[in-house]
Amino acid sequence: MLGATSLTRGASSVETGGLANPVLSAVELLGSVLMSALAIFVPVLAALVAAIVVFVLMERRRRFTTAAWGY
Asked: Residue ranges of the DUF4126 domain (predicted)?
């Protein structure tokens, strides 16, 4: 990834005289912040979804078992 960043910055410096480098830096920063936030929130969201699925399956099993025995 570092190589791609260097190539992009180099190309932008050649084409714009370095004027686009702050914009590219800001885009890189936003991408880094987004990826960091996703790295934190996606596992938490996955655990929450898994807990909901387990709860729903256990509730269905309880209802099925109760209905089968006639309680």
From this structure: 4-58
